[in-house]
Amino acid sequence: MGRVTHKTTKPLQVNPIKLSQPMGATLAFLGVDGCMPLMHGGQGCTSLTKVYYTRHFSEPIAIQTSAVTDAIAVLDGGDYSIVESVKNICRKVTPSLIGLHTTGLPETKGDDIRGVAAQIDYPLVYVNSPDYEGGFESGWALTCKALIEQLVEPAEQVNDNKVLLLPHISLQPLEVEKIKDFIANFGFNVLALPDLSTSLDGHLGEKQAALSSGGIRVEEIKGLADVGLVISVGESMQDCVAALQRKNPAIRHHHFVHLQGLEATDALCELLLSEVGFSKPAPAVIRWRQRLQDAMLDSHFSLGQTRFLVAGEPDHLAGICRSLYEAGGKVTLAISTVNSPQLERLKADNVIVGDLEDAERLADEYDLIIGNCHCEALTQKLGKGLVVRGFPNWEQVGNQLKNDVLYEGGAYFLFECANAATLLRGHRAS
């Protein structure tokens, strides 16, 4: 099992894979239909996030900023900037919701965004998301929790046909859609919070929208307290479940560490079968399970001869490491962006919290890297193989349609890793 053997003591990330909490918060708000993320901080923070996501998704990304400067932060506290930003937004567009989230500058000053939010007569959800703590994954989770706490209306009854999916941040839009469809095939009405599957899935709209287009609607969020079952994916989403159950203690919950590979998908299938009282799933589900089993057989020879480094967010690492382990792959090194209880259970020989400088320092421990596009230069320098996963992916188009989850995605993922491993051995042999 995984064990954290090293937490970096470096005063800075030299070659980072870590992303900030405000970036995670922004992405979560983009999973709400018609929402305008408003980043309370300097213009540079917002510009970086906007360019980052525009390049990753190959889509125009709408974000606004309160444009706080050092002087404004000290003299005004930023309250005026927030109020004026909301006024400016509403002069141009009519968002269904404004997602106010902080960065390090106003948090260091101690801005009371809860107090400011109470003064604004417009639908608004606020999140404290300083970039000097936490990371990408926690920013998403904090925002999801805030949406539940500030929008969901309490209820006493539940609708057993209604299911809520709480996905972690590293699930691509198509993966969220595949999980929703898998659950819906058992007869459930499924919602996801946040939901990128219809907002950043790469579909061609009629025109460039000034607001997020697609995602869960605000009215749907308000009515989430009557869901019969909550399915959470990823340890980072546990607090969101607790927040929702405070709205209605009758809500039932089932948690999945991840939904990659055979065992995890079997567990989801068994849960849904027990919920509806069926003895077996639809023929298409059975067929894909058989395909995944065959993929495990076909790929295990290549995977078993390869030592893997996996780098990314903790919840993402859990699914990748387990999927490879089931097919005979050996993750000799896992590098996480931040510390998490998740890391203690990873199927990896060595688990560290660090950056790509650590990956270079430990280059003798692995043959192939699974990580974001920043790993490409490292693989070329060290003569390693690469399978691109995680944020960002600026070198490939269509990453929002990558699917590694459930039986179908699990088969594709193993084939891609096995082919990359075979290609690497061919290059080394020549």
Strand content: 15-25%
> Which segments are poorly predicted (pLDDT under 50) over 5 or more consecutive residues?
none
The protein's oligomeric status is single chain
Radius of gyration, taken over Cα atoms and rounded to an integer in Å: 22 Å
Number of domains: 3
Please estimate the helix content: 40-55%
Shape: globular
**Could you name the CATH topology of the largest domain?**
Rossmann fold
CATH superfamily of the largest domain: Nitrogenase molybdenum iron protein domain
**Helix/strand order:** EHEHEHHEHHEHEHEHEHEHHEHEEHEHEH
The largest sheet has its strands arranged as 1-12-11-10-13-14
Classified by CATH, the class of the largest domain is: Alpha Beta
* Number of helices in the DSSP assignment: 16
- The number of E-state strands comes to 14
CATH architecture of the largest domain: 3-Layer(aba) Sandwich
Structural category is alpha/beta
Rounded average pLDDT: 92
Distance between the termini: 35 Å
Q: What's the story with the biggest beta sheet?
A: 6 strands, parallel
Q: How is the secondary structure organized here?
A:
Elements: E1 4-7, H1 21-29, E2 35-40, H2 43-57, E3 64-65, H3 70-75, H4 79-92, E4 97-102, H5 104-109, H6 113-119, E5 124-127, H7 136-151, E6 159-166, H8 173-184, E7 189-192, H9 218-222, E8 227-233, H10 238-247, E9 252-256, H11 261-276, H12 283-304, E10 307-312, H13 314-326, E11 330-336, E12 351-353, H14 356-361, E13 368-371, H15 375-382, E14 385-388, H16 406-429
